[in-house]
Structure formats: structure tokens, C-alpha cells
Amino acid sequence: MAGPVCFYVPAHIIDHIAKNARQLGIDPEPAQRTAIASQAARQTRRAAAPANLTAALTPPRPGKGDRQIFDDGHQWNTGVTLVRGEGDAAVGQANANAAYDGLGATRDFYRDVFGRDSIDNAGLTLLGNVNFGVQYDNAFWDGTQMVFGNGDEVIFTDFTKDVDVCAHELTHGVTQYTAGLIYTDQPGAMNEAFSDIFGSCVDQAVHKVDAGEHNWLIGEEVMAEQLYGEAIRSMSHPGTAYDNPILGKDPQAADMSGYVPGGDPHVNSGIINRAFYLTAIELGTVPAARIWFNTLLNLWPNAQFIDCAYVCAEQARILARDGKVGRNAPQTVRSAFREVGIK
Ligand SMILES: [Zn+2]
């Protein structure tokens, strides 16, 4: 199965760091290496290399959505050493356990709330890699596996620390298998938004909070100490997640007045993110998630924002009719899309 490599930290942030680090007295090397490695990963997508299998670890059962966690030993390679299989006891490394837990939380959320069997709905084995590269300031899904960097501990910390990293990235996989939204302009922005949307839903499920208590921030747990309080995106107030000399200023659009035609999906995704936030605040996160998941199942590769609004209201109506969400869900959805200027 092919698909785009989806990086957690968008290129505009990594580029800003690489350009400005030296004058801020920060080692520019990790960001530069990250930019180069990201480029390389984009060009040479690969399946997991043959692993050094340890007999004591549990092999994955095909079609059961089992997890396999690899320690890449700071090589720029994936699938280096299998350290934990499904049901195996926790290991010494916190990030390997966090990756295992994050993959599990995401898989379980999709199963419990949507009845979906792993990413492909056919029990795809979930591969996770930790300790990829050296001070690698990113995480990505390459169409077959999840890869987490350690961060440089100056700007970003280990990317296993925030469950929304894993949930965001795995959702790119779900989108590949469902709507197949192409990664450009409006469908690209929706592809990004669905990853933030279900990423935040998993995050809320793990922390046992609903829409009203959630911070609606993406990536706030992977910011290193000196950037504490910043985040990569804000779903409630897109464009306000960060503003500092290291990362630059959050360029996200919050509504259609900020829409950039043909712009980076990570910029325009703010519009759709906020429409979900407005829906969730009214209906609660799980009912909103059900509506938006059915929307994802009914969209198509080059769908536009207006199509999303229409399909979403239709799915809300069907779920309301079946008593799965509140009676006013279609109106709430329409109002949310109108508030962000999609009408
Ligand atoms: Zn993404």
C-alpha cells in the first residue's frame, strides 16, 4: 500500500528552526539533520527491514492488530531490533513502552468507538520504531510503520511522550484506507485535520476528559523545557499555538478568511480542526467523533471543504435518526461549518 510520508512536525517549523538556530545559540545540527533525514524518508519509503528476532518475544498473529515495537539503536534505519511484541511485559526503556501504549490506545479507540479493526479494518499489525536516528526532531508514518525520533531535548523531547503523535500518524493510515484524501490543497488540509481530530480524540480518551476539559492542543507534550507551554497546533484557536524566535509564529488559518489557496495542508487544516472543535464542544467528543468518522468513510480523494460540510451534516442526520447522537446534531454541524466560513 502506498501513501505519502506524513511528518508530525511540519516542514515550515523544521525549516524555521534550521534557519534561525545558530543566531539563537542553539545547535542547528539536529534540525538540519532532521530536514535531510525527512527528505530521505520521503524518497526511500521502505517496509521494516528484517529484524533481529529474539526468541523470547511474541511474534505477531496475522490479522489481529498486534503490536511490534523496534529499537532502531540510533541508526537511520527502521525495524532494527524487536524489543516488545503483543502482550509482552514492559521493557526497561520508557519510550518503547510509551510507543506500545500509544499504538494500543489508538487501536483500542478505533475498535471501541467505531468498531474498526486496526488501521485497515483487517487487523493490520502495528509496527512502531523508537530511537530512530540521532536527536531526530520528528515522527512519521510511512504507510507501513510508525517511526519516533528522540528529539534534541532543546526544542522537542521524545516523540512517544504525547499520545496524539501516534494517534495523529496512525490516522493518516486510516485515511489512506478510507477516503484516500489526496495530500494537496483542500483534500490535503482535510487529510491533516482528520489526523488532528482523531489524534485529539485518542488523547482525550487516554486522559479521560471530554471536549469541555480538553486543552485542544496538538503536540504540547513533546515541547522541551524551554518551550514549555507552546504547542504545534491549537484546534480551538488555530494560529495561536506558538509564537517564539525558535519555532516562529503559528501560521494556521482559523476560518476561510485565513485560507491560503493551494497552501500547506498543515496551515489550512486549522479551518476544519476548528469546525470539529465547535461540534465537539456542543455534542461531546465521542458523538462528534462518530459523526466525523462516518464522514471520513463517505468522502473521496479530491473532496473539497464544502463536500465535507455536506457529508458531515448528512451523517449527523443519519446518526441522529438512529438515536446514536443528539437530535440537534445536524444543526450543530452546519453551524460549526458556517462559523468557519464554509457555506
Ligand atoms: Zn499529519
Automatic annotation (TrEMBL):
Top-level taxon of origin: Bacteria
EC code(s) of this entry: 3.4.24.-
Keyword Zinc in record: yes
Database matches in InterPro entries: Metalloprotease_M4, Peptidase_M4, Peptidase_M4/M1_CTD_sf, Peptidase_M4_C_domain, Peptidase_M4_domain
Domain Peptidase M4 C-terminal: 179-342
Enzyme class name: hydrolase
Cofactor: Zn(2+)
Localization per record: Secreted
Pfam families: Peptidase_M4, Peptidase_M4_C
CDD domains documented for this protein: M4_TLP (cd09597)
Gene Ontology molecular-function annotations: hydrolase activity
Keyword Hydrolase: yes
Domain (Peptidase M4) ranges: 93-176
Keywords, sorted A to Z: Hydrolase, Metal-binding, Metalloprotease, Protease, Secreted, Zinc
Purpose of the protein: Extracellular zinc metalloprotease.
UniProt similarity note: Belongs to the peptidase M4 family.
The protein's name: Neutral metalloproteinase
Source species of the chain: Paractinoplanes globisporus
Lineage of the organism: Bacteria, Bacillati, Actinomycetota, Actinomycetes, Micromonosporales
